[in-house]
Each structure stands twice: as structure tokens, then as C-alpha cells.
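== Polypeptide entry ==
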Amino acid sequence: MSETETEKTIESVVKASLCTGCGTCVGICPQDAIELAIDHRKGIYVPKLDKERCTECGLCFDVCPGHSVDFKQLNLNIFGKEPEDILLGTYLNCYIGHATDYDIRYNSASGGLVTALLIFALEEGIIDGALVTRMKKDKPLEPEPFIARTREEVVSASKSKYCPVPANVALKEILKAKEGEKFAVVGLPCHIHGVRKAEAVNKKLESKVVLHLGLFCNHTPSFIATKYILHKMKVKTEDIEVLNYRGGGVGVTMRINLKDGNCLSIPEYWNSSSFGSLFYPKRCMLCYDQNCELADISFGDAWLRELKGEQIGKSLIGSRTKVGEKLLQKALAKKRIEITIITENQVIQAQRGSLYRKKSVKARMSLFELLRKETPAYNPVVPKPRAVAYPQGALCYIGAYFSSKRHLWGLLHIADSIKSLFMSLLRFVVYRILPPRLRERILG
């Protein structure tokens, strides 16, 4: 986004289509002049500004991670140095592990470590509450960020939510908490970016948030993605009692409990091309941080070849600060978790798809700029991608467009087939026809 932008409210970010829907502006606004509402046409959260309440203090713009993230300065603030590893960011140790409580492990997305660590931190008095998200009981397709203060509340927020989540609206509750109370925050990279930016300008928030747990993220599917799945299954929204995007062992299995008592299950829906490669919110295409490198601890799926037979689930863990490492070691000593150290290369192998997106983000940004659309400002400058990232970025953009139009859903399988055919042809040309030198220049 242009540094010469004169309008310093969240409206300028929304106008530029750079809002992440993270909710930081709502949580930090001193005038309560902003609320988030679902834009059902786009399938994302969009902030609405009450101009009568707004004093144009500019705070909402300052804490917004949508238009810019100064990774260099934030790394210096948090770690005291710039990251040595461009892919993984700053880290102390890398692990794989899981909760020792079987029920927590089984019913979580992968390994149950976030849930186990939050419960442990509550019981040990390290925190008084945690900013987490569950699905609303009265609106099972909408997420509900809240401050969990008990084991039961933490457990209610387990499992991944593959839909937009405005987690940082709950920062308002943290700011209103009693003097001396301490909190953990759990979020995706955009949420953690927003929290860190807010802490840089609000020292009260900085003193209250003592633990940042970050989740790896390829992208957040829009609400339209869920509607598409329900449409394919001929399930009406009003018939749903509970929807769980994940949980119940290894694999990405959506479970839908209907009000009539029936239960529907969709194994591995996330990996299907008609879901995983489509329904991208525009801002997600421009994200530079898939592994939540500004957290104290980052967590992701451990998609390692040696864990192929794993049936319950394990988490990939990156401890980044002394605070995060200390928590892991204390929980390990009290047998609340099991962790095993792994190498940087194993992390890269386990998350190669997400990490590739970081290396190729410049290609997608270039496409947006070619279409005269705004892009976020990052510091340091995003590295130059390999040539093959440009057609892949174009396909991502086209897929997002097709999937956002309900009247075009009937053509999604055709678009998928065309994409698969194009990628197969591209791989054939690159690996079988091009000379080695030219292939190296294209792949980088």
C-alpha cells in the first residue's frame, strides 16, 4: 500500500482490499467506533467504521497488518535481531510432539499441543486466560473469539477452523481485564502480526500478553468454501447443529452433526483440488508469513514421510523465544507433553507447500500490481521468485475468482481439470524438454 496514503483509518485498507479480517482494529479502538461484519458476497469479515464515534486518531491504521508488516523492526523488537533463516524465521529449536492426554490429542487438529499447553499454563498460574476461538452454538458456521479461563473453555476451542476468524476483537477484553492479569493469544500469522503491532503502540497490552502461540497457515478459506461444501452435500445451513472442520485423529475430516441426529463426515476434503486450491481471499494470496514467525511458539501439521502411519496426530513445533522454550520444557518435565527435537530440513519437508508460498509471494504481488491493485508493504523486500511462480500465481487468482461466484460453481471441476492439465504440461516442459541451465534459471 502506498506510503503516501493520507487517510489514516481502517477505511483506506478496506478500500484497497487489503483487510485480513483479523479484528485488531476492533480490539484496539479506544472509541469503540469499529465493528466487524461478514460480507456475504465476498465471504470474509470487513470492518465498519462509525464516523460519528471516530476521532481519526489513526490507531486502527497503525495496528493493521493488512496494509503493512515491518518484519525487520518487529523481529528486532521481539528477538533483538533479524532472522537468519528466510524460510523459517528466528527459532531456538524445532520439535515434533503431542499432548500426553489422549482425549485432548485425539480431539484436536494435530497432536493437541496448543490445547495442552494452554491448560498447563492456566494451572501453573503462568496465564489467567487465553484468547482462543470456538464456533458459536446458535450460529454453528460462525467463529466466536473469547477469553478462556478454565480447562473446559480451552477444550471447547480446540480443533482448526477453516473459515475467517476475527480473533483479535477479543483484545478489547484483555485491555479491560484486572490489573496484573496475564494472557496468552492464539492465532494465525495475521492475528499475531496484528497483536505485535498493537503491542508496539499500546504498552498496557504488551504487559498483559505474555504468551503468543502461532498456527501455521497456508491460507484461510472464505465462508464461501464452507457454503460450497454444504451445497455439494445438499445440506441446509439451518439443519446444522454442530460443524467441526477437523479433529478425531489424523487427516482432515469435516464432521457435521445435523439437528435430526444424523452425522455426516467428509474425509480429506481439505486436500481435494476443488477446495484446497480455491476459495482464497485476495489478501491471503499476498501473505508473506505462513509459519507464524513472530510467535513465541509456532505449531503446524507434521506432514513427514516417517509419520505416514501415525493415526492420532502429532504437531510440528518451532520454539522462537525463551518464554516459549521455557513453557515447552516445563510441560515436558511434568509429562503433560511429549516432544522430540528435529532438524530444520525436516520442518521444511513437513511444510514445503506453505514455505513455497512464501518464496513465491512476489509473483502474486506482481500480478496484483499489473492489475493495478494495491499490495501490502513488507520490510525487508520480498525476494525474487522463480519464474514458474508467475503462471501458478495467475492460476491461483483465476481460481479465487471462479470460486467466489456462486453461479460459476458448476464450472469449478472444469477449471480444476484445466489447471491440472496446465501444471502437468508445465512440469513436462520444464523437466523433460528444457536444457539444465534454463531449467535452473526458471526454478531458481
Notes: The chain is about 40% helix and 20% strand. Residues 375 and 425 are 30 Å apart (CA to CA).
